[in-house]
Amino acid sequence: MWVVLPQTYPTQDCSIARALEIVGERWTLLILRDAIFGARRFEEFQGGLGIARNVLTLRLERMCAEGLLERRPYSERPARFEYHPTAAARELGPVLFQLMKWGDRHDPSPGGAPMRARHRGCGGEVDFELACDRCGARLRYADLDFERRPDLPTSFRRGA
Amino acid sequence: MWVVLPQTYPTQDCSIARALEIVGERWTLLILRDAIFGARRFEEFQGGLGIARNVLTLRLERMCAEGLLERRPYSERPARFEYHPTAAARELGPVLFQLMKWGDRHDPSPGGAPMRARHRGCGGEVDFELACDRCGARLRYADLDFERRPDLPTSFRRGA
Predict the structure, then answer these.
(1) Of B102, B158, B94, B101, whose CA–CA distance to B125 is shortest?
(2) Residue B1 pLDDT level (bands cut at 50, 70, 90)
(3) What is the mean pLDDT of residues B114-127?
């Protein structure tokens, strides 16, 4: 069941509600996740997400219109496009990071955290408040590296 | 249009995907927002969100089943209940905070930020990496106070 939110919020001048107008849908955030980690082509998104092709087509179009993805041609015959995350999309990284941290804590994967955030150059693990458990520094998001659990495939298929 | 995500992710052992199974819906996050800021009763959620009563009923039930809200009686005749955020729900605060910061930046309210995060006891404004712009300290989420823009009503109606 899905009910469209009203487009105006008389009692709700709220930045959370406004952000959710743009990203408040699971596919959007999962597509952004894959785009931030390097997926670019339709088949990469589709293979990794297992999303219906017509649904993905609509989502990608809407995300371009909303300024989250930028469509760039990579082949003329046949005409083919890549979808690159914009600066605005990359700035949603902290939302995804906090969802990851919450998921690790409240619905942990049986095999351990699928992805770990590490302090670049130090290797310590980083908590949800950006503190490094090795050197104790408080970091910036730009200081993080993400390390996939070695037994797992990447979440999208490259070059499919 | 709403398509239910597959419940298993063969190539997707991912904490973001797992978290979105629980909170990947706009109403859920807006209900959590109001619960974290003090809404407890059906009418408070309903009045603030403008959500259809039957939709809200289903959402509250599901959020109780998922461990995000706890139902507590506050009246016997008639039987009436309050919905209290659990510890797991409060720990989604950082997700909401990051959505707020992103919304402030990318889809700003014409009247200025509807809510500001302040360093408790200092009054400085806090950025998305928890740095205080007055004293420069790097904070914890527990150090934040939230200040609603004075010309705005709260996002839910108390005691309705």
Answers:
(1) B101
(2) very low
(3) 97
Instruction: Indicate whether B46 pLDDT > 90.
Output: yes
Cβ distance A100 to B16 less than 8 Å, yes or no, reads yes
Tell whether the model's pLDDT for residue B114 goes beyond 60: yes
Cα A139 to Cα A81: distance, rounded to the nearest angstrom: 36
Q: Which two tokens stand for residue B143?
A: 């150090």
ipTM of the complex in this document? 0.89
For helices B93-106 and A15-23, the axis angle rounded to 10 degrees is 90
Q: Residue B15 and residue A104: Cβ atoms within 8 Å?
A: yes
Local structure of B81: helix, strand or coil: strand
User: What domains does chain B contain, in order, with CATH numbers?
Assistant: 15-87 (1.10.10.10), 93-148 (no CATH)
- Neighbour-count burial for A95-107, b at 16+ CB within 10 Å, e otherwise: bbbbbbbbbbebb
Identify which of B153, B123, B157 has the alpha carbon closest to the alpha carbon of residue B137. Answer: B123
Do B109 and A13 make contact, defined as CB atoms within 8 angstroms?
A: yes
Q: What is the DSSP letter of B156?
A: S
List chain A residues with pLDDT less than 50. 1-10, 159-160
Residue A44, min C-alpha distance to chain B (Å): 12
User: Residue B11 has what pLDDT?
Assistant: 52
pLDDT of residue A3: 44
Determine the distance in angstroms separating the CA of A76 from the nearest CA of chain B, rounded to an integer.
31
Backbone angles phi, psi at B75, to 5 degrees: -150, 140
